[in-house]
Write a structure and sequence with these properties.
Strand order of the largest sheet of chain B: 6-9-10-3-11-12
Largest sheet of chain B: 6 strands, mixed
Distance between the termini of chain A: 59 Å
Number of strands of chain B: 24
Helix content of chain B: 25-40%
Structural class of chain A: alpha+beta
Number of domains of chain B: 4
CATH topology of one domain in chain A: Immunoglobulin-like
CATH topology of the largest domain in chain B: Rossmann fold
Helix content of chain A: 25-40%
Strand content of chain B: 15-25%
CATH superfamily of the largest domain in chain B: P-loop containing nucleotide triphosphate hydrolases
CATH architecture of one domain in chain A: Sandwich
CATH architecture of the largest domain in chain B: 3-Layer(aba) Sandwich
Number of strands of chain A: 9
Largest sheet of chain A: 4 strands, antiparallel
Order of helices and strands of chain A: HEEEEEEEEEH
CATH class of the largest domain in chain B: Alpha Beta
Radius of gyration of chain A: 21 Å
Shape of chain A: elongated
Structural class of chain B: alpha/beta
Chains: A alpha+beta, B alpha/beta, C mainly alpha
Distance between the termini of chain B: 45 Å
Oligomer: heterotrimer
Largest interface: B-C, 45 and 31 residues
Chain lengths: 127, 525, 364
């Protein structure tokens, strides 16, 4: 292979790597807004009530959520794991549910916490 | 010339410059290992011929040329100097082609650096190779050794004496690996005799290796000594193409000039030494790089022509430059009992001194300006001449008077030009020098310092410049201090000759003294 | 024949930094600011501005004077930053993506600037200054009109209320000091941004290495004597364009580093002053339009910013008016630029003038 061709191929490859790297970095470095909603969710079939004694652990500070609350958490990267601690007011027993969200290049997510906790396949809601 | 085909063959070369035919039907062959002497007066067409060979842009810009050039039997037509270089034609320039702030090594390897591979080359190309300084220095040391001179590869060119700059240029051409033809334009003009001999020996050695050399020089003795064949140009025509064994200085000179010229020497008139201590120089020190003067004492008599000779780098050029204030000087200079303020060019001029610089293109001339302004400038600045007042307020240059005076000098000095308004840059070297002379004549100085007034100019112009110097010395009583590296020239015109060695006067002899005595003084014996 | 080292020579060639140092020695105690505070400020400012000032070194090497056109690089960096903020990137990836975006823009702008400077040989400085001005117009057009209309901007918070055009200023909450804080060491209660300095060091090394390459040598040759370089077959114009492209690129990265340190962008002002500030800093560091070294960069940034911090307080304590110290600083800092430009112009005409002065002369 002659030198010129080799170098040009190398240069093209490097450019491609740079572009791909840019995408990858965007993928990793993008901040997403996740809006968590703790109100009644009516999905396919069941109607799930809001949760009491809910604490959300995300990349930021943990937050308590009362029924009817709506909060904004911000998360970085291709995926994030949200942990919901639900302490039942009667039994004082708590359980933890973690949920991993793959965010891709989408910037905003509307998530219903009761749907997630209730094991709903599609916990997203539309405004 | 027994070779089956010549290395270089130029056929029917013709060139017109704005309607003037400057070259007409030139046929020229150069064999391998041959040294060809190219002689001719300035303006005879030597430079144009070489410019054509090199494909200099100026040739295309003025309409190209007619005829063919063949290199190794193949026809070539170079569109730029780089193409000529690539084809193996090297040139040693008369005007230095060096970067002053670069070292000898850097200049010799300019754009031909020895480089090493580096990884980034793959991405950004070959210009990102790193320099191999050690390898370059090694090669430079070798080339310099071959030249037989002593240059430190790390010395900056700006700190070198002129001769070393020349060697650096030659070293650069020699170092080219596949050089076939080397054109040397006036290489010895700035060199002392010993240096010139060393150079000629190197050129002979190169020729023995098979390099064809075109040697341009005004020093006919050198031409005869070194060249196999001599080609004489005159007014754009090839006058003579003869083997050097069949010619002598006199006949070559007459072919060049076109008429028989008499003996070169002038008749020495009786000196009119009116005042013994007209100009006295005491313990002069001049900080001129490469030409330093150290503690020099000299008495100049009124009305004499004093020659200053010596080997290059010994300080002979420093004297005039120091007194005229061009380089920092210390010591005392007394003119007619009055002490002169040093380091002040204006005071030097006011005191009635004038200077023909050895560096005519750098210091001597305003290259881009007209002949008229060049001649009139010092007069206007120093003496306030040629100026007229408008409404008593503004001073204005008197254009009409300038033209008149310029025309008279053009006639008197036979300056070849289109008129007083032509820019000095367009003139040939010899004519530029005549402008320099005209300029100091216009000042009618009491004392004239002439540094290398005939360097790099042809016989005709040389003769004229020298005779003009002699003339003003005789008719106007101007005291002339002439510095030259050509002893023969000094002996032909001077009354006394002082030889400078190691920044001091080694001795003063009358011009008639035997040559050997001068030689001994130069060598510091 | 080598020039001998002399104290006097060293003093004269470093006159400017020495004057500033003397002034600082006087102003620092006057200001009443504590040394640790000043040191902390200086470290932070060195990290912020060194790379920008470093971008000026290569064009000086190539004989093109002080590249006022470096603001083009700053613009490119800012465009990258604006886009990155719009896309919601944060952290180190955001900086890297901004740099990736800025790279082609800088190369394009650098080529353009270099091309024009080739048409204006010998007047590079004033030309690059004006290029900076009119490209500012193009920049404003791009950000005020194209962004949000032709170029999609998804984040409405960045846009002006009319629906297109970028706001005057934006915060960089997820980008603020990410580079500085990623790797930093605490020394005597001061955070030293090791990684930022490492990045600067890498660029310094690149410049040093660059000088030892063929193209670095070509640039020096072009800078010293264009005619001879051309005669030797060096592609002069191409080399000069390359010098400007490299300068623009470093300025782009420098602006990104500087913005992450500040944590905010003044969309239409941040880049404007960068050229003048950087050039003043370099000159204060003892550089000239013909000669600039890496040492000049750091000394310059240090002294220039020291004056910045100290003079208002010194003025206040001395005369009771902070503004007065500030006036003095402005006067001296920009006076330096004026003097340097004058000296440069003088040197360019030096040969011609000297010829007249020496050979013929004397002006009355």
């Amino acid at each position: 292979m002659n030198v010129k061709l080799r170098r040009n191929l190398l240069r093209v490859a490097l450019c491609l790597i740079a572009v791909a790297g840019g995408f990858l970095l965007s993928f990793i470095g993008m901040y997403h807004s996740i809006i968590l909603d703790n109100s009644e969710f009516s999905g396919a079939g069941a109607v799930l009530p809001p949760l009491e004694g809910l604490r959300v652990v995300s990349e930021a500070e943990p937050v308590e959520m009362s029924p009817g609350d709506r909060i904004l958490v911000s998360a970085k990267g291709p995926s994030t794991t949200l942990v919901f601690e639900i302490t039942s007011p009667e039994t004082q027993q708590s359980r933890e549910i973690s949920y991993t969200l793959h965010m891709g290049f989408k910037k905003q997510f509307f998530l219903s916490v009761p749907a997630i906790v209730g094991g709903e396949k599609d916990p997203f809601f539309v405004e | 010339m027994t070779n089956e085909k010549p290395l270089l063959s130029m056929k029917g070369i013709q060139k017109d410059f704005l309607g003037n035919r400057v070259l007409e039907d030139i046929n020229l062959d150069l064999a391998q290992g041959e040294i060809l002497g190219l002689v001719g007066e300035n303006g005879a067409g030597k430079t144009t011929l070489m410019n054509i060979l090199f494909g200099m842009p100026v040739i295309q810009q003025t309409g190209g040329y007619k005829g063919t050039i063949a290199l190794d039997g193949e026809e070539v037509r170079f569109s730029n100097p780089n193409a000529a270089l690539m084809a193996g034609i090297g040139m040693v320039h008369q005007e230095f082609f060096l970067i002053p702030d670069f070292s000898a090594t850097e200049n010799i390897f300019l754009n031909r650096e020895v480089t090493r591979y580096s990884l980034l080359v793959e991405i950004f190309g070959d210009r990102l190779r790193t320099l191999d300084k050690a390898a370059m220095n090694e090669r430079v040391v070798q080339v310099i050794k071959e030249l037989g001179v002593n240059i430190n590869p790390d010395t900056l060119v700006s700190e070198m004496p002129v001769s070393y700059k020349q060697f650096t240029e030659i070293a650069r051409e020699i170092d080219r690996a596949k050089i076939k033809i080397l054109v040397v334009d006036e290489p010895t003009a700035v060199l002392t005799e010993t240096e010139a001999e060393a150079l000629l020996a190197v050129l002979k050695r190169l020729a023995a290796k098979g390099v064809g050399i075109i040697f341009i020089s005004h020093r006919l003795h050198e031409i005869l000594n070194i060249c196999d064949r001599i080609v004489v140009l005159r007014d754009g025509k090839l006058i003579k193409d003869i083997s050097s064994g069949q010619s002598d200085v006199k006949s070559i000179a007459s072919w060049m000039v076109g008429h028989e010229i008499g003996d070169f020497a002038f008749h020495h008139t009786e000196n009119h030494r009116k005042t013994e201590n007209f100009l006295s120089i005491d313990h002069l020190k001049v900080l001129m790089p490469g030409e330093a003067v150290k503690d020099l004492c000299l008495q100049v008599h009124e009305g004499e022509i004093l020659g200053i000779g010596g080997l290059a780098g010994q300080g002979k050029l420093g004297i005039a430059n120091g007194i005229m204030g061009l380089f920092p000087a210390e010591g005392s200079v007394t003119l007619k009992g009055k002490s002169l303020k040093l380091n002040s060019p204006l005071d030097a001029f006011r005191a009635g001194m004038a200077f023909i610089s050895e560096d005519r293109r750098g210091i001597g001339l305003l290259l881009t300006q007209s002949i008229g302004l060049n001649i009139a400038f010092p007069l206007m600045q120093v003496k306030g001449g040629l100026l007229k007042k408008i409404a008593g307020l503004f001073t204005w240059e008197d254009k009409k008077k300038i033209r008149e005076i310029t025309s008279s000098y053009i006639e008197r000095l036979d300056i070849k030009c289109t008129g007083p308004d032509q820019s000095v840059m367009e003139l040939s070297g010899g004519n530029q020098q005549k402008v320099c002379v005209a300029k100091v004549l216009a000042l009618s100085p009491q004392i004239l310092f002439a540094s290398e007034p005939t360097r790099g100019i042809d016989i005709g112009a040389k003769h004229l410049v020298l005779s003009v110097l002699r003339e003003i010395n005789e008719k106007e009583g101007t005291t002339i201090i002439m510095t030259s590296s050509e002893l023969g020239e000094l002996r032909s015109i001077c009354d006394r000759i002082a030889i400078v060695n190691e920044g001091k006067i080694a001795g003063i002899l009358p011009a008639e003294a035997p040559v050997e005595d001068f030689g001994l003084l130069m060598l510091g014996e | 024949m080598k020039p001998k080292y002399s104290l006097k020579g060293a003093l004269i060639s470093n006159l400017v930094p020495i004057v500033f140092l003397m002034f600082a020695a006087f102003a620092v105690p006057m200001s009443g600011l504590s040394i640790p505070y000043l040191l902390h400020e200086m470290i932070s400012r060195l990290a912020r501005d060194s790379l920008l000032v470093l971008s000026l070194v290569i064009p000086v090497l190539a004989g093109m004077g002080l590249n006022f056109g470096m603001v083009l690089g700053a613009m490119a960096g800012q465009i990258g930053m604006v886009l990155v903020v719009d896309w919601g990137l944060g952290g180190m990836p955001a900086l890297l993506v901004a740099a990736l975006l800025g790279t082609p823009i800088s190369i394009g702008l650098g080529y353009f600037c270099g091309y024009i400077l080739n048409l204006a040989k010998g007047r590079e400085m004033v030309t690059s200054y004006i290029i900076g001005f009119f490209m500012n117009g193009a920049y404003q057009f791009l950000l005020l009109y194209c962004m949000g209309s032709i170029i999609p901007i998804t984040n409405p918070e960045l846009l002006l209320s009319r629906g297109y055009g970028i706001r005057n200023s934006m915060d960089l909450p997820n980008i603020r000091q990410v580079l500085d804080r990623l790797v930093s060491v605490e020394v005597f209660g001061m955070d030293i941004p090791i990684l930022t300095f490492a990045v600067i060091a890498v660029f310094c090394l690149l410049i040093v290495w660059f000088k030892t390459t063929k193209i670095g040598q070509d640039m020096r040759a072009v800078g010293r004597n264009r005619a001879v370089a051309n005669g030797a077959g060096i592609p002069v114009e191409k080399t000069r364009i390359l010098a400007i492209i490299i300068s623009t690129l470093i300025a782009c990265y420098g602006q990104i580093v500087s913005l992450q340190n500040l944590g905010t962008i003044n969309t239409y002002n941040s880049h404007e002053q960068v050229g003048i500030f950087s050039i003043a800093a370099l000159l204060v560091g003892g550089a000239t339009a013909e000669n600039a070294s890496i040492a000049n960069v750091f000394v310059g940034v240090f002294l220039f910013h020291l004056m910045f911090v100290v003079s208002p307080m010194a003025g206040k304590n001395l005369i009771g008016d902070a503004q007065l110290g500030e006036y003095f600083r402005v006067f001296v800092s920009y006076g330096i630029i004026a003097v340097s430009l004058l000296l440069h112009a003088w040197k360019k005409r030096h040969e011609m003038l000297e010829r007249r002065l020496l050979e013929n002369d004397g002006k009355e």
